[in-house]
């Protein structure tokens, strides 16, 4: 099989169901951003250390699930469509991970700055890519039907990345940096 087909040379692509759409279509943007997120998660997993090994299987599972999300977002919904493949139990799985890691990190009453270890920094980038992806999926939902469970998962995924970043810092004995409001520095 050739890597290049030349079918998209004029700015169009086919979605699942063989419908041709513009590559600028919000649907293509939505599943394309899920693909970008999946690639970033793959990069992020390359930053796992011996201290943070517990997160490796999470990130690999998330990559698998993101492929299901992409598939559901990439289908033609204008006619009869096959059943969605995303499974709602993935949401429950992700919530359990969040619930397991949350009590292990120090409580904070302020915002934290994204960063810390390289892994935590990459997880924060994953969180922001996830939020952008979520906004695009919401825009898609406004113009056509989607698997709403995918939207719920993506929303929860940004929460997971936030707590996973904090947990990665905790495992590496790297404290989070708390946000300092400018009024705290520039008091008269």
Automatic annotation (TrEMBL):
Entry keyword annotation includes Protein biosynthesis: no
Recorded coiled-coil stretches: none
EC code: 2.5.1.17
Keywords: ATP-binding, Cobalamin biosynthesis, Nucleotide-binding, Transferase
Domain Cobalamin adenosyltransferase-like: 3-168
Membrane-spanning ranges: none
Pfam families: Cob_adeno_trans
Gene Ontology biological process terms from the UniProt entry: cobalamin biosynthetic process
Family: Belongs to the Cob(I)alamin adenosyltransferase family.
Name assigned to this protein: Corrinoid adenosyltransferase
Lineage: Bacteria, Bacillati, Bacillota, Bacilli, Lactobacillales
């Amino acid at each position: 099989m050739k890597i290049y087909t030349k079918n998209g040379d004029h700015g169009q692509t086919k979605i699942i169901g063989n419908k041709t759409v513009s590559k600028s279509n919000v649907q293509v943007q939505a599943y394309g951003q899920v693909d970008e997120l999946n690639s970033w998660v793959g990069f992020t997993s390359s930053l796992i250390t011996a201290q943070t090994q517990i997160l490796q299987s999470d990130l690999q599972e998330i990559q698998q699930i993101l492929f299901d999300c992409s598939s559901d977002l990439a289908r033609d919904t204008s006619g009869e469509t096959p059943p969605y493949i995303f499974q709602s139990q993935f949401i429950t799985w992700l919530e359990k991970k969040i619930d397991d890691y949350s009590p292990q990190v120090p409580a904070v009453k302020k915002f934290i700055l994204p960063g810390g270890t390289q892994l935590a920094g990459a997880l924060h980038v994953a969180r922001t890519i996830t939020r952008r992806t979520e906004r695009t999926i919401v825009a898609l939902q406004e113009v056509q039907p989607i698997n709403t469970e995918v939207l719920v998962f993506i929303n929860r995924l940004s929460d997971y990345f936030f707590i996973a970043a904090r947990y990665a810092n905790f495992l590496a004995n790297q404290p989070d940096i708390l946000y300092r409001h400018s009024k705290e520095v520039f008091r008269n």
